[in-house]
Structures are given as structure tokens and as C-alpha cells.
Write a structure and sequence with these properties.
Blueprint: E1 11-12, E2 18-20, E3 24-29, E4 43-48, E5 54-59, E6 69-73, E7 78-82, E8 103-117, E9 124-127, E10 135-140, E11 156-161, E12 166-171, E13 185-189, E14 194-198, E15 211-229, H1 231-234, E16 239-245, E17 253-259, E18 262-263, E19 267-273, E20 278-282, E21 285-290, E22 295-300, E23 304-322, E24 324-329, E25 340-344, E26 351-359, E27 366-368, E28 380-382, E29 390-396, E30 406-411, E31 416-423, E32 429-430, E33 444-445, E34 455-459, E35 469-471, E36 477-479, E37 482-487, E38 494-499, E39 510-514, E40 524-525, E41 529-530, E42 538-539, E43 546-549, E44 557-558, E45 565-566, E46 573-579, E47 587-595, E48 602-603, E49 607-608, E50 616-617, E51 624-629, E52 635-636, E53 643-644, E54 651-657, E55 668-676, E56 687-691, E57 699-700, E58 709-713, E59 721-724, E60 727-728, E61 735-744, E62 754-761, E63 772-775, E64 789-792, E65 807-816, E66 822-832, E67 843-846, E68 849-853, E69 860-865, E70 868-870, E71 877-882, E72 886-895, E73 901-911, E74 917-918, E75 922-926, E76 931-936, E77 942-947, E78 952-953, E79 960-964, ...
């Protein structure tokens, strides 16, 4: 079987692609620094999935500050994530410092991934190679043809560690920043940490090509060549990024094929050796011999080139579109490739080409998205110098490759590589997505356990055209991808090896160690048991297994740990299984039975204390009686159950136990036996004695025990039963009557009798005396007769005088006789009330006049006093004039209708009164100023200021004081102030009105800034207060204007001087006001409009122009493109013109302060112009490509000159239709110069080389 491979070549210009070839579930990467001055953003990670959904996580293991990102992909899906927001912690800068910027990408299933710097002018993409990028030895390849355009854009080497404590040694071949050439130095990195190295020069021949890097743990390395200037070789005025993730030495190959891109001249391949004396061969010729770390430049002038080396090398391919260069690492082609590749064409660019590479014989076995008729053998040609062994296809603009759609290419018989080329005049991107590693077998198992008796299938990885060969123990051999063991045993243990190659490509073998494990020992023992007893099993094999029931049909359950059964059925049979939990589980079963119990039933009755009580056996006889509950030492007959030595009231538990047998289980039963107590004698009063007038009550005797009964008897012998009842009334009879009672329990036990006697005695005859009426205060004496002892109510004692309160009383006397029987009599006593005289309350009086007010209660009365004049002596209310200052007494005497008299006196203290006066009847005050008030008096001893407001006084008790009014007082505007004077207990007061005024206020405001130094703004002044007002305007604490006789309201003026403005010395009719807040007039940054325009000149066949904002201090953008199209508001944008012409592009910008600026630039869109120049022709007379000539359109004038290698002119023409036929010229390379003026008068200059081949 032949081996087929296809080469993946990927060059994308402007667009971004995702290709499923370099697949893995884990990727390590460090992003190079791209100089921001030549555009370094946006940046993206791009992912593509295969036939399974994927969840992708992006993290920086050494940087906790980076937020972990998650991307979800459907099957056959493609997604991107924009990382521009974190560019400062992703691009690996500054140089020569340990940083934490390593990126780790993990996926749930294999995916493809790449990193893209997607700026308009300086882009590139870097394919992430997964495990193929990791190694411990690297050589760095660089181009040495083109210089870097900017001094900040030097070639770089960036390293990321995948494990902690990684030691890395680096030997540069040229001077690096901080490190001299050919001097080894070392660094130490932890997992996720990165290190950046930069060339010390921008010159091409000083690139650090061949720098040797070794490490003690796996690392990944990125190379970059920023803004390399292609004009010196390819013409044009372009400078572009070239970057890729490289492969380690153990992934390098010895066979490579490069496919030319679309540069104006030949591509370059830079070959760097990993071993000394490495020869490079192409077309049967040895091109060069180089040592480890040395680099050879190989030109690629034609469509494809094949070369091989004697030792592993790494190859950097520099290609591009027009004069826009880019580059990537070539994959080796020997024994590599894929049978299934997916990619996405993301943009509709002017240039798109699909390149395929496969060995002969498989070129007609392709399918595109399942369609076998789109890519056919007719699309393929031979790769030069491979003797027809390799085929390649270069398909331009295939319509079946749709924008933003998944494009899947498969080959049913061989391995292949696929490449994409996309480009335009402004930039190019280039990247390979191919399997850099060789083939290997991988044995997988159908199970993770290998226990005796289990089934097992070993499988190799599915590869096309492999002759699978298995070898194993005991002479085992087999063929095929899978081997099915069936049930395995100990005899199958051993080492199995899978081999088999794909044609002459060696596939690395794989081994599998099979160790078959014996089944666990599941032995245990268990015995029959009686219902209710413990029946745990004994494990004799591997412990910690699980017990279960096999055949239970009832509610029986089993303890899975010890095998104990619960809820079993008597007489039932059970089967128990024990299963182990070891590496190889096993099980065993045993049977057991539940034995029946014998009948242990019997009867025994409760009894009264002292009686006989044998038990009666109703079940199996010949058993034994015993006491299980014996509270006080009773005895039992073990044969008949008779109890003796019992205690009254005790309860005993009698148990009967059967003898048991081989076929049955001994059982027992219990009964409680109670020894009933004899009830106690009824607890009651033995004697009931009554007087003749008392009610004879029934006697209620409660039994001592529940459900007992009470019996009443007439005789002590208990023969004459009166009644059985708890209640009985002994019949009425003067003298003594006797009865007898007993208590009988519910168990029919009767107590001894209790005697009860009833005695009824006669009453005494009592006299209380005659009724009495007196006034309050006179004494009363009560004297009764007819008894032995007398007891009056209300605490009165017989024949002892007392003085009762006013009222009408009925006094009751109770007296007893010698039998302690009582009788009573009553007497009426009336006590008339004295009048209640009330002369009033004693008080102090300010002055000598007063009005007396007594309460006469409707009675007659009169006033009496000394040294005073009483207006109406017999009137309870009367005016008096005292003769002196001081204390005098006045008495009111009153008599009621019963002739009872009383009086009341009042003391009046006549005091001298103070005088008081507040000096100002009306006082004025201002906000934030306290008010001074003053009063005076000729005789006051103290003062007290108060107010109707809510303010406070500084000295509230002095005639001269200061009032601190409140905000509420200020809002009310008018309040009263009160001054009270005191002379001893006499007071006088005066009132003053306080009128308050709020202080005037002023506010100023305006715009806070100027956009231009020579402009002005309006300043607004707002005042409030009582006219007239006056104030001053200050600038930087100096008065510039004064205002007087102003009314409140708004004043406005124009200001232009910068600085701090303030209103000061504010005053209205009454009060001064505060200065205003300062207003700072400043000059803001005016935005400065600027943008880059690319291209400034173009043609209508490429009508797109790109504008990138370069403005300062702006946050609003408005683009107009001079062709009546809509306005754009993006920061950066692009625009397509529909017609040729000169257009003015205007950018209008503004900032957050309202300041604006604009700038206009012109773009020229030429009419259609295109020129095609071939790079070779074959004047061999076959009428195919026999002449060298140009094709184009939009051309006004055309001139061409061709010279040989010695500078001799061999052909020239002023007409594009005239072509060079090459006659009389030898095979070789010739140089041409072409000058063209297009239809709008623009000059175009072309120079290059053309090969003449015969």
C-alpha cells in the first residue's frame, strides 16, 4: 500500500482563519510585543471544533489578575475571543524581566487554535501547536534579508515555562539587548512565567538566527520580526510583522515542500540546522552544508520547491502578497499529515487561493463538505524534483468556499496538507496548521478493570493502510486493529505489543501490560435461629462486603454490614448472599431457617391480701414458674405458681417458661398479679354537734380508693345496714344520735367500722337596749343582757363608751350560753354630722387687697379677724383690705340645721410687689448676629427672660442680656421677648417685639472653562435681600468691579480672564452677607483632530480606504467621506468608493467639555488600472507560453526594457501588444524595467526578473 500525505500551507492576508489540523486539548503560548506605534491591536484567539461540542478555558496560571475566559463551541463550529482589553498583560514586555503573561488554553475535546494580531497595517497570525510546540531544545530561525523599519521594532524571542522551577539556558548567535553574542546565560521560570529577549539591532544580518535554547523541563518558544521593510527587495513602501510559534528539535524533519505565495519576487525559506555537517539538497544538487545553529537562505521563484536535509532542521518560510511580507514555520512532510481538516474563510478579500499537497494516487479521493465532485484529480500537478511522487493543487477563488462557513476537507485513502492564501495591498497574514509530529500507535482498553472472567477488547488507533500486528505472552499473535479476548483469565496476563507501519513510514509501537486479578474470597457462615434472637453472619473471606436477601417474599430485611435479619417470619427459610467490594468483586450464598416457639400460655387471678392463688397452665406443661417483678421479697411455688409472703397492695409479675426441644424454641409468657389491700377505716369526723337553730348537714365521706363504696350501719356488728352511699344525713333529734360506716373496695375487700355521733343543743334569749340619736363628737354607750358573753359588731364593747362617725347605725349584739349556742338583738344609733367649714387656702398675696372665699354648704356663718376691713362679715365670699404688709388670720364659723357648729381659718401673707420695664419696645436683628436687650427695676430681686421663639439667652437672669435667635425664629421674622421681675414671691413682667432679617445672599455661575484662549463667557450674579444692596466682584482676591444701590435679582457680564472669581462685601438695608463661593475659569484642552489614511491613492478596482483616528483629547468622532455617504461615528473605520475621483475626507472630533476640532485629507481613487507580468516563458515553438509580454487595462502609455545579466539591452518596446520572443537569447534570468502612465496621468514603475526556459 502506498503512503499518501498532504501538506498544509496557510497564508491569510487581512482575513482571519480557523483550521482544524493542529489539534490538541492543551496549548501553551506567549504573545510577542508588537510596537504600538505601528499598530498592535486588536488581538484575538481563534478556535475551531470538529464533530463534538467543546468548552474552552483561557487563563494565565501565573497571573491571578487575569480573568479566566470561557468559550463554548458547537460541533463543527468556530469562535473568537477579543483579548484587546488585556493587551498590556498579554504582550510579553518589557524585555529581560520575568513576567507572568503565559497563556494556557484547555479544551474538553481536541480543537485547533491560533493567536491573531489583527491590526490593519501590521497583522500576522501565530498557529498554536499544542504538545508539538513543547520541548527542551530549540534553535530559533530568522530571515536575514530585510531590516526592521522602526528602531522600536526589533526581532524577538519569547519563552514560556509549563512547570515550576524550570531552568533555561540560552546561547545567542548575535548581540541581544543586555546579552552579548555567543555567551551562554540562564534564567529560571515557574509555571506560566515568561521571558522576552530582543535583538540589539534592526539590521537584517544581525538577527539572532540559530540561537540555541535548552531547558530541564518543557517550554514553548515564540519568534517575531516586527515591521520588516520589504521595499529594498520587493518594492513598495510596506513594513509588516512576521511571527510564529516554533517547534523543538525533536519535532524537526528532514523533508520539506514550500509553495510560493504571491510576492512580486521569489519567496525565501530560511533553513536552520540542529546538527553539524548538515547538507541541504534540492533537485539532486547539494545546495550547502551548514553546522548546528547556522542558517541557509533558499529562494523559491516558482510555484513549489522540494528540499531535504541530512539531519533534522527547522524551516522558516517568508512569503506574502505583493510587497507585503509575512512568514511561518514549515512542517516536515515525511510521515506527517491529516485525513480530516476544517477551516473558515472569514472575509471576502480580493485574493483567495486554496493549495493542496498529497502523494500521487490519492489526488482523486478528496471530499469538500462531503461532496466528492468539487476537488478532483484534474486540479493537481506534479511537485518539481519529486519524480511525480508528490502532487499539488492551487485553486483560485473556489466558489464553494463560503464566507464564515465551516469548510471541511477529507481524503479517504491518504494523508494530506491544505493551505489557504488570502491577501490585499494593505497587509498579509500567514500561518501553518499542520501535524508536525510523526505517526504512533496508541492502545486503548474497553474496560478499566481486569478481573478474572470479565470481557476485554484491546484497540489500536485507527490509521489508514496500517498492517496491525499483535504479540503477547505464551506465543500470542494476532492481526487487525482490535483484539477481543472474550472472558479473561490468569493465563492472559502479560505484556502486549502493537506494531505495524504505513508503507515505508514507521509507526511507533505501543505496549500494554495486562495483569488479570483473581476474584475476591466471598466465603461466610450463618446458622438457624429462633425468632427474635441475634443471627449475624461470620465473614471468613474478604471483609467490608455487602449482605443481601436472595429469595425473601415477606417483609424481612437484612443488615448489609453483618447479615443480621429483621422482621422475619417464624418457620420461614431464607437465602443470604454476600458480595465483596474488592478490586474484583465476588459473591456466595447460604440458606437458614427461623425455628417456631412453644406455647407458654397460663392464667392466674388477682387476690385480696392473705387468700390462696394457684396458676392454671393452658400451654406446654413441665415448665417453671418464677417472679420477674418482686418488689418486696414474695415467694412463688415453681410448679403451681402459688404466691406467699406477699405485701398488701403490691403487683408481682409471674413468668412461665417452657422446657424447649430440638425442633422448637423455648418460650415464656408473663402475667401481672395484684395483691389487693384491705381498705383503711373511712377517714371522717367522729362527732357532729349543732345548736337548735343550725341546719343539719348531710355527711359526705369519699372512699380512699377509686371505685370503692361506703356502707352506713345502725349497729357496731354491721348487721343493720342503713344505706350504701357516700352521702347520708343523720335524722334531727335534740340530744345524741350514733351510726357506723365501712369502706368496701372494688375488689370486694371491706374495712373495719368507724363511729359517728350527732348532738343538738338549745339557744339563749338576748336584749340589746333602746335606740340612740346624738351629734358627731358626743360619746355613746351600749349595754346588752340575757347571755354569758356579748359580741357587738363594728368593734363595740359592751358597756364601754365610744364616739362613732356621722351616720345611721344598726348595732347587733351576739351572745352565747353555756352550750356555746348563740343568739342576737339590734339597737339603732344616729350620729348627726357637724357642718364642714372651709375658709379657703392660706396663700401669699402681692399687695394689701384680697378676696376671701369660704364654702357655706347652705348653712349660716360669719367671718372674724383683727387689723383688717371685711366688706361682708356674713357672706362666705367677701373683699378685704389688710392694714399692714405681713401675715394675718381670718376665721369662718358655720352652724347646720341640727345645731352642730364648726369653723375654719385661713392665713394670708401680704407681700410688696416689684416694678419692671424693657427699655426698647421694638428691637431689630440680622441673621448670624445676636440681639442685645435691656430692662430695669427699682426693687426687683431677680429677673427672668423668656421668648415666644425658640432661641436662647446668654444671661437669662440679668436685666442686660444677649438673645441668640434660632433658625425657626429667623423664618418667623417677628417674635416677642418677655422680662419678668421678682421681689420675694411677687412677679411683674414687660414685653418687647423683636424683628429679624435674613442676611443677603449671592451666587455666581457660568461655564467652567474656555476652549480657546481668546474667547469669553457670560458670568451670572444672583442676589437676594432687602434693597438697596451693594457688593464687589473680585478676580484672584483683587476687586475689579463695585456695585451699589442694587435691587435683588440677576446681573450678567462677559468675562475672559482666567482665574478665581468671587463676590465680596455684600450688604443690604439691614444686614451683611457672606462672600460667594469661588468660581474658577480655566482653559480646557481643545481636542486636536488627526488621522491616518491608507491608501492615499488607490484604484476603483480596490475602492476601500482605511482611516485610523490619531486625535488627542477627543471622545466623539464624526467621519464624512466627501461622496454624500452617511456619517460614521466609529474611532476607526473603512469606506468603499463607488466612483473614481478626488475626495475630501473630514474628521470632526469633540471632547466631554464641548470643545471641537476637525481635519480634512484628500484621497485619490484612480480609474481601473491593472498590469500582469509573468515571471517565466518557454520559447520552444510549441505555441504555449512562447513569448514574454504583459497584460493590463487602464493604461495610457507603456514602455518596457529588458537586459541580460551583463546589463546589455536585449529587448525594448513602447507598445504593450509587442512581446519578446526570446530569439537569439540563452536560457537564464533577465531583468526588466516597465514604465506605465495610467488613464488619469499617474506614473507606475515596475522592475523584476523573468526566467527564459527551453
Amino acid at each position: 500500500m502506498k503512503k499518501y500525505f498532504l501538506f498544509l500551507f496557510f497564508l491569510c492576508c487581512v482575513s482571519s482563519l480557523k483550521i482544524n489540523a493542529q489539534t490538541d486539548t492543551a496549548f501553551w503560548f506567549v504573545a510577542p510585543e508588537v510596537w504600538a506605534g505601528h499598530s498592535d491591536n486588536p488581538i484575538y484567539l481563534r478556535f475551531a471544533s470538529f464533530d463534538s461540542p467543546a468548552t474552552v478555558s483561557i487563563s494565565q496560571p501565573a497571573n491571578a489578575g487575569f480573568p479566566e475566559q470561557t468559550v463554548s463551541l458547537n460541533a463543527n463550529d468556530a469562535q473568537s475571543i477579543n483579548l484587546t482589553n488585556w493587551l498590556s498583560i498579554i504582550e510579553n514586555k518589557p524585555v529581560n524581566q520575568i513576567l507572568n503573561y503565559g497563556i494556557y488554553i484547555s479544551s474538553t475535546v481536541p480543537i485547533t487554535a491560533y493567536y491573531e494580531e489583527a491590526s490593519i497595517n501590521n497583522p500576522d497570525l501565530l498557529s498554536l501547536k499544542g504538545k508539538n510546540a513543547l520541548g527542551t531544545e530549540f534553535y530559533t530561525p530568522f530571515q536575514n534579508l530585510l531590516n526592521s523599519y522602526y528602531s522600536q521594532s526589533k526581532a524577538g524571542i519569547d519563552i514560556v515555562a509549563t512547570e515550576d522551577n524550570t531552568t533555561i539556558e540560552i546561547t545567542p548567535t548575535q548581540n541581544l539587548i543586555g546579552y552579548p553574542a555567543n555567551t551562554t546565560f540562564s534564567i529560571s521560570l515557574n509555571k506560566g512565567q515568561t521571558y522576552s529577549l530582543r535583538s540589539a539591532s534592526t539590521l537584517s544580518f544581525l538577527r539572532p538566527s540559530g540561537t540555541h535554547i535548552t531547558s530541564d523541563k518543557p517550554i514553548a518558544v515564540t519568534i517575531s520580526d516586527d515591521s520588516i521593510f520589504g521595499q529594498s527587495y520587493y518594492g513598495g513602501n510596506n513594513y509588516d510583522l512576521l511571527a510564529d510559534q516554533i517547534i523543538p528539535v525533536n519535532k524537526m524533519g528532514q523533508e520539506y515542500i514550500g509553495i510560493k505565495g504571491q510576492l512580486t519576487l521569489d519567496d525565501k525559506i530560511y533553513i536552520t540546522a540542529s546538527e553539524d555537517n548538515t547538507t541541504i539538497t534540492s533537485g539532486g544538487n547539494i545546495l550547502s552544508t551548514i553546522n548546528a545553529g547556522e542558517t541557509y537562505e533558499l529562494s523559491l521563484p516558482n510555484n513549489a520547491i522540494y528540499f531535504s536535509t541530512s539531519s533534522p532542521v527547522i524551516a522558516l518560510h517568508m512569503t506574502g502578497y505583493g510587497s507585503e511580507v509575512c512568514g511561518a514555520i514549515l512542517p516536515p512532510i515525511n510521515c506527517t499529515g491529516s485525513q480530516d481538516v476544517s477551516f473558515i474563510r472569514s472575509l471576502d478579500n480580493p485574493f483567495f487561493k486554496l493549495n493542496l499537497l498529497v502523494k500521487s494516487g490519492a489526488e482523486d479521493d478528496f471530499s469538500f463538505n462531503g461532496n466528492p465532485n468539487l476537488i478532483t484529480a484534474a486540479d493537481f500537478s506534479d511537485v518539481p524534483n519529486t519524480n511525480g511522487e508528490w502532487k499539488f493543487a492551487s485553486i483560485s477563488n473556489p466558489t464553494y468556499v463560503q464566507i464564515l462557513q465551516n469548510s471541511n476537507i477529507t481524503n479517504s485513502t491518504g494523508f494530506f496538507h491544505v493551505g489557504i492564501i488570502m491577501g490585499r495591498e494593505s497587509s498579509s497574514r500567514y500561518g501553518y496548521f499542520s501535524n508536525y509530529n510523526t505517526f504512533s500507535h496508541n492502545i486503548t482498553s474497553s474496560t478499566e478493570s481486569y478481573c478474572e472472567g470479565e470481557t476485554l477488547v484491546l484497540s489500536g488507533e485507527t490509521l489508514t493502510n496500517v498492517n496491525y500486528s499483535w504479540e503477547g505472552p505464551n506465543g500470542f499473535t494476532a492481526t487487525g486493529n482490535d483484539y477481543d479476548f472474550g472472558s479473561i483469565s490468569q493465563a492472559d496476563s502479560g505484556i502486549y505489543v502493537l506494531t505495524g507501519d504505513i508503507g515505508d513510514c514507521e509507526v511507533r509501537s505501543d505496549t500494554f501490560h495486562l495483569s488479570v486479578i483473581n476474584l475476591d474470597d466471598a466465603s461466610f457462615s450463618v446458622e438457624n435461629f429462633c425468632q427474635g434472637s441475634t443471627n449475624s453472619a461470620t465473614i471468613t473471606g474478604l471483609e467490608n462486603g455487602v449482605f443481601s436477601l436472595v429469595n425473601s417474599s415477606d417483609a424481612t430485611t437484612i443488615n448489609p454490614v453483618n447479615g443480621e435479619l429483621s422482621n422475619t417470619t417464624i418457620g420461614a427459610d431464607y437465602q443470604i448472599m454476600y458480595q465483596t467490594n474488592g478490586d474484583c468483586p465476588n459473591s456466595s450464598t447460604q440458606n437458614l431457617s427461623v425455628l417456631p416457639f412453644e406455647d407458654a400460655s397460663f392464667t392466674i387471678d388477682n387476690f385480696c391480701y392473705g387468700s390462696i392463688n394457684n396458676a392454671q397452665i393452658t400451654g406446654v406443661t413441665s415448665g417453671q414458674f418464677s417472679l420477674t417483678n418482686n418488689p418486696n421479697g414474695a415467694l412463688i411455688n415453681s410448679f403451681n405458681g402459688e404466691l406467699s409472703n406477699t405485701t398488701s397492695g403490691s403487683i408481682y409479675t409471674v413468668e412461665y417458661t417452657t422446657p424447649g426441644s430440638v425442633s422448637s424454641c423455648s418460650s415464656s409468657s408473663q402475667q401481672n398479679v395484684e395483691v389487693y389491700p384491705i381498705p383503711s377505716n373511712p377517714n371522717t369526723t367522729n362527732l357532729y354537734e349543732y345548736c337548735a337553730d343550725e341546719t343539719i348537714n348531710a355527711i359526705n365521706i369519699l372512699p380512699a380508693e377509686q371505685n370503692s363504696t361506703i356502707q352506713w350501719y345502725n349497729d357496731i356488728a354491721l348487721s343493720d345496714l342503713i344505706v350504701q352511699s357516700e352521702v347520708y344525713q343523720i335524722p334531727y333529734s335534740l340530744g345524741t344520735t350514733t351510726v357506723y360506716i365501712t369502706e368496701t373496695s372494688e375488689n370486694n375487700c371491706e374495712s373495719n367500722p368507724t363511729t359517728i355521733s350527732q348532738i343538738i343543743n338549745p339557744l339563749p334569749n338576748i336584749y340589746a337596749g333602746n335606740d340612740i340619736a346624738v351629734c358627731f363628737g358626743e360619746s355613746v354607750t351600749l349595754n346588752a343582757s340575757g347571755g354569758v358573753n356579748y359580741f357587738w359588731n363594728n368593734g363595740v364593747q359592751n358597756n364601754i363608751p365610744f364616739t362613732p362617725e356621722v351616720g345611721q347605725y344598726e348595732f347587733i349584739v351576739t351572745a352565747d350560753n353555756i352550750n356555746n349556742c348563740f343568739n342576737q338583738d339590734t339597737v339603732e344609733v344616729i350620729i348627726y354630722a357637724n357642718p364642714i367649714a372651709y375658709a379657703g387656702t392660706s396663700t401669699n398675696v402681692c399687695g394689701l387687697e384680697y378676696q376671701l372665699q369660704a364654702n357655706d354648704n347652705g348653712n349660716l356663718g360669719f367671718w372674724s379677724s383683727n387689723n383688717a376691713t371685711i366688706s361682708s362679715v356674713n357672706s362666705p365670699t367677701t373683699d378685704i383690705i389688710n392694714d399692714f404688709y405681713g401675715l394675718n388670720n381670718f376665721t369662718w364659723t358655720e352652724t347646720n340645721s341640727y345645731g352642730c357648729e364648726s369653723n375654719s381659718s385661713v392665713n394670708i401673707n401680704f407681700l410688696e410687689q416689684p416694678n419692671i420695664n424693657i427699655l426698647e419696645d421694638t428691637t431689630y436683628g440680622c441673621e448670624d448676629e445676636n440681639v442685645i436687650v435691656e430692662g430695669n427695676s427699682t426693687n426687683a430681686s431677680s429677673y427672668l427672660w423668656t421668648t415666644s421663639g425658640t432661641g436662647t439667652f446668654q444671661n437669662q437672669n440679668l436685666p442686660f442680656t444677649e438673645y441668640m435667635f434660632s433658625d425657626e425664629d429667623l423664618n418667623n421674622l417677628e417674635i416677642n421677648l418677655y422680662l419678668r421681675a421678682q421681689l420675694e414671691d411677687c412677679y411683674s413682667s414687660d414685653t418687647s417685639l423683636l424683628i429679624l432679617n435674613k442676611k443677603p445672599e449671592v451666587n455666581i455661575f457660568s461655564d467652567e472653562f474656555l476652549c480657546f484662549a481668546d474667547s469669553s463667557i457670560q458670568l451670572n450674579i444672583f442676589t437676594s435681600g432687602i434693597s438697596p444692596l451693594s457688593y464687589e466682584l473680585e478676580l484672584n482676591n483683587e476687586t475689579i468691579l463695585s456695585y451699589s444701590d442694587m435691587s435683588e435679582g440677576q446681573e450678567s457680564l462677559l468675562i475672559s480672564d482666567l482665574g478665581f472669581y468671587r463676590i465680596s462685601n455684600l450688604k443690604d438695608a439691614f444686614c451683611y452677607g457672606d462672600n460667594s463661593e469661588e468660581f474658577n475659569l480655566i482653559l480646557r484642552n481643545r481636542p486636536q483632530a488627526e488621522f491616518t489614511l491608507y491608501p492615499r491613492e488607490t484604484s476603483i478596482n480596490e475602492p476601500t480606504v482605511y482611516v485610523n483616528d490619531q486625535s488627542l483629547f477627543a471622545n466623539y468622532y464624526e467621519w464624512s467621506f466627501g461622496d454624500s455617504s452617511e456619517l460614521y461615528n466609529d474611532i476607526d473605520t473603512e469606506h468603499d468608493y463607488e466612483n473614481a475621483g478626488n475626495y475630501n475626507i473630514k474628521l470632526f472630533v469633540a471632547n466631554e467639555f464641548g470643545c471641537t476640532d476637525s481635519i480634512t485629507k484628500q484621497v485619490i481613487v484612480h480609474p481601473h488600472f491593472e498590469l500582469y507580468i509573468p515571471d517565466a516563458f518557454t520559447p520552444d515553438g510549441d505555441r504555449i507560453n512562447d513569448t514574454f509580454g504583459c497584460k493590463g487595462y487602464g493604461i495610457a502609455t507603456f514602455t518596457i526594457s529588458i537586459v541580460n545579466r551583463w546589463g546589455e539591452l536585449v529587448f525594448n518596446s513602447n507598445e504593450i501588444e509587442v512581446e519578446w520572443d526570446g530569439k537569439n537569447a540563452i536560457n537564464g534570468v533577465y531583468a526588466y524595467r516597465i514604465d506605465v502612465i495610467d488613464m488619469i496621468g499617474k506614473s507606475h514603475f515596475f522592475k523584476g526578473e523573468v526566467s527564459l526556459l527551453r
